[in-house]
Specification:
Layout: H1 2-70, E1 73-77, E2 81-85, E3 91-105, E4 121-135, E5 140-148, E6 154-164, E7 174-181, H2 204-208, E8 216-229, E9 232-241, E10 260-268, E11 281-292, E12 303-305, E13 313-316, E14 321-336, E15 339-352, E16 363-379, E17 382-383, E18 393-407, E19 430-445, E20 448-459, H3 465-468, E21 480-492
Antiparallel strand pairs: 1-2, 2-3, 3-4, 3-21, 4-5, 5-6, 6-7, 7-8, 8-9, 9-10, 10-11, 11-14, 12-13, 14-15, 15-16, 16-17, 16-18, 18-19, 19-20, 20-21
């Protein structure tokens, strides 16, 4: 009886549990479904909002990209300056500056000058601010350069308007016109005082001949740059000007049909070959032809003088140039690895004023040859490595130059100025000078270098000894030797 009663109790409890499950489960399932539906609605709403936000993000990115594309591009490279260019290339502007400073010594008394030169002479050699304006992706260009010279004057060093037809075809020229147009002679005769070269400055012969950096006053030129010629490239220039290469301040001349012309070329015949023995060969040649008016100023173009700021005069012809003269200069270079051989020659021929009052006097002949060596001896990359763009590079250099002048003709006023009264009827008719230079440059970084140069000078018959060089042994017409020691700082921003 008791067992039956227990079984009924179990069946009753089981039935109750089953009843509860049947009554509760439908209610719980409905609630879960409602919650699921609610979450799905929220998810659909979030997905739609997410898609909307993604679309807005894409539009914002497009607008930002379009706005950035319209902004000018700023680029700076040490030594090359700052360039600002429109995004579409429609216009551009570039600026940089070259700044060279010198500290000069004369280690012996022979080189101490009477007229204001001094020991420990800290002096500016050059400050050149550059500005270039261009438009239509560089097809048109205005190039402007000032010369803040050692005498603190401000003059035009270069002012050019250029049209780059070579952008259409490399065999077409660049057209240039302006009051100061850049000219080149050969790369081993002009602009040795650059930011990356060895010797401190150009040749004594070239500087004394009034060539300077080669710029032409009031000129028109056609230039072919890096024109392909077989396995190499060529550079060529043809220019005609009013005043030739006279100083930047000589911007006027008497009314005359007389003109100056310059033809020059530089060829690297094997520059595209992978042969290290011949890849670095180059040679060049230039001819400057000038026909000057006898009333024109600054015609003292037959002379030899040192090229540091103090410019000691060594040889000078008694009379100024008159009429026609020509200046020829060939050059040859060979670069292999860290070594560069540089050679140049020069020939300056023309007539001087006739002391008797005629339009053209005796013929003057001048000649020069120069050889220089540059060697990169060390950089952080190791021995016999380096470049002007590699910080920590060390360059050694040496050079030799020999100059000769002959001023023939009868009379005591046709020879070399202020020469000995005991030589050949009261004057010297020929003289020579030479100098030897050696030094080093240390490149702190691209565009910044410091260095020093020693110079030994000799002139066999000093032509202006009474003016420039004080020497207890000196008298006009005597041989003079002196030394110089110069330290330099070069900054190219």
């Amino acid at each position: 009886m008791t067992a039956k009663r227990s079984n009924w109790r179990g069946v009753t409890v089981l039935g109750g549990i089953l009843f509860l499950c049947l009554t509760v489960s439908p209610a719980s399932a409905g609630e879960v479904e409602d919650r699921i539906r609610a979450l799905e609605e929220v998810q659909r709403a979030n997905a739609a909002e997410l898609e909307k936000l993604k679309g807005e993000q894409i539009e914002l990115k497009k607008e930002a990209t379009a706005a950035a594309a319209k902004l000018p591009d700023f680029t700076y490279r040490p030594g090359a300056g700052l360039t600002l260019t429109a995004a579409d290339g429609s216009w551009g502007f570039r600026t940089r500056i070259r700044w060279h400073y010198r500290l000069m010594f004369f280690p012996d008394k022979d080189g101490v000058a009477k007229n204001g030169f001094s020991q420990f002479d800290l002096a500016l050699r050059r400050i050149y601010p550059y500005m270039t304006f261009y438009w239509d992706k560089g097809f048109y260009e205005v190039d402007y350069q000032m010369n803040l010279g050692a005498d603190r004057s401000i003059i035009i060093q270069k002012a050019e308007f250029k049209v780059h037809f070579e952008k259409f075809n490399p065999y077409l020229p660049q057209f240039t016109v302006g009051p100061r147009v850049s000219g080149f002679f050969n790369r081993h005769d002009t602009n040795w005082g650059s930011a990356s070269g060895g010797l401190f400055d150009r040749t004594m012969f070239q500087d004394g001949a009034g060539i300077g950096a080669g710029s032409q006053n009031n000129a028109i030129s056609l230039d072919w740059n890096n024109v392909p010629i077989g396995p190499g490239v060529m550079q060529f220039q043809a220019a005609v000007s009013n005043q030739g290469t006279r100083g930047e301040d000589d911007q006027t001349r008497p009314n005359s049909d007389k003109r100056s012309a310059l033809i020059s070329t530089n060829i690297e015949p094997f520059s595209k070959l992978k042969n290290k023995w011949i890849q670095g060969i180059d040679f060049g040649f230039a001819a400057l032809l000038e026909n000057m008016h006898p009333d024109e100023a600054n015609r003292d173009l037959f002379r030899v003088r040192t090229t540091e700021r103090q410019r000691l005069g060594l040889i000078e012809v008694n009379n100024d140039m008159s009429g026609f003269r020509y200046y020829l200069t060939p050059g040859f270079g060979w670069k292999i690895g860290p070594y560069w051989l540089r050679t140049a020659g020069g020939f300056n021929r023309g007539h001087v004023d006739d002391p008797a009052g005629g339009r053209e006097g005796p013929l003057v002949k001048g000649s020069m040859w120069r050889v220089a060596h540059e060697l990169w001896v060390w950089s952080p990359k190791g021995m016999l490595t380096g470049s002007s763009r590699t910080p920590g590079s060390l360059m050694l250099f040496t050079g030799f130059e020999r100059d000769d002048y002959e001023a023939s003709g009868n009379g005591t006023r046709n020879g070399l100025r202020d020469c000995s009264s005991t030589v050949r009827n009261g004057e010297c008719h020929a003289a020579y000078a030479w100098n030897y230079n050696a030094g080093m440059w240390y490149f702190i970084r691209n565009g910044l270098s410091v260095g020093g140069e020693y110079g030994l000078y000799h002139v066999n018959k000093i032509g202006r000894g009474g003016d420039d060089i004080s020497n207890s042994r000196d008298k006009s017409g005597a041989a003079v030797d002196f030394n110089t020691l110069e330290f330099g700082l070069r900054v190219e921003w």
